[in-house]
Amino acid sequence: MILSQQEIEEANHRLRNAAPTDVIRWAVGLGSSTIASTSFGVNAGALLHMIAQTTPKLPIVWVDSGYNVADTYRVADTLTQQLRLNLHVYSPAMTAERRNAIRGGIPTLDEAERHAAFTREVKLEPFERALAEHKPKVWISGIRREETDHRKSLDIVSVDARGILKIAPVFYWTEQQIHHYMREHAIPSCKHYSDPTKVLNGRECGLHTAA
Predict the structure, then answer these.
(1) Distance CA 137, CA 122 (A)
(2) Whose CA, among 56, 78, 112, 125, lies 20 to 30 Å from 86?
(3) Collapsing DSSP states into helix, strand and coil, what is residue 90?
(4) Nearest CA to 16 among 166, 157, 148, 137?
(5) What is the maximum alpha-carbon separation in the chain?
(6) Which CATH class is domain 5-184?
(7) What are the residue ranges spanned by the domains of the chain?
(8) How many CA atoms lie within 13 A of 158 on its CB side?
C-alpha cells in the first residue's frame, strides 16, 4: 500500500474541504500509476471535465456493458471529443446482441444467480482486464457519499478491497452541487441512463465492492 492508514486518515482530514481539482492533483502527485473510471452516467461529465482541466493525459477507463442506451453513447462520444479524453474502453467478451439471443437478455434481480453471473461478465471481468493492463496503484472515481449505504462507509481517500488506493474528488458533493457545476461549464449530460447491473438507485454493481 502506497500510504499507511495514518497517512490516509491525515489525507482525508486535509482534503475534506479541498476543491476536487486539488484532490485530483494530489492523487496524481503521489507519483504512482493512476487511472480514472467513468460510467458516462447522467453527471459523469463533471469529474471528466475536472480531469481534463488538471491532468488531461490521465487514462480513463470505461466499461461499456453493451447495454447502454443511445443517449449514453452519443454523450460519451461528445465528451470524449470535446474534452479530448484519454479514453480506454473495455467491453464484455460476448456482445449484447449475442447474449440476448442465446441467454434471453438481462436477468432480473429475482434471478439472483443469473444476475450475478451477468454482472460479472458485462462489468467486473472487463474491469479486471483494465486493471491487468494499466496496473494502477491509484484509482480516481466519481463516487459520492450520498449515493449508497456502502459509500457512506468510505471517504475521499480509501483502500479498495483489491489493495488499490481509491480517490473520490467529489465524494462530499451533493447532487445539487454536481448539477450546478454541469450547468456552469455547459457540460453535456446524459439524460437517459440505465445500468442493468445496478437496476435500482442506491445499489452497488460490484465494481466498488469486488475483492
Answers:
(1) 23
(2) 125
(3) strand
(4) 157
(5) 52
(6) alpha beta
(7) 5-184
(8) 19
Report the side by side order of strands in the sheet with 86-90.
Answer: 86-90, 59-63, 34-38, 138-140, 165-167, 157-159
Nearest 5°: phi and psi at 70? -55, -40
DSSP 44: T
Confidence (pLDDT) at 93: 93
3-state class (DSSP) for residue 65? coil
Per-residue pLDDT of the chain (211 residues; tens, 9 = 90+): 789 999 999 999 999 999 999 999 999 999 999 999 999 999 999 999 999 999 999 999 999 999 999 999 999 999 999 999 999 999 999 999 999 999 888 888 888 888 888 999 999 999 999 999 999 999 999 999 988 888 888 899 999 989 999 999 999 999 999 999 999 999 999 888 888 887 766 666 667 776 5
Residue of 44, 1, 51, 65 whose CA lies nearest to 22: 51
Collapse the DSSP code of 62 into the 3-class scheme (helix H, G, I; strand E, B; otherwise coil) and give the result: strand
In three-state form (DSSP H/G/I as H, E/B as E, the rest C), the secondary structure along 104-160 is CCCCCCCCHHHHHHHHHHHHHHHHHHHHHHHCCCEEECCCCCCCCCCHHHCCCEEEC
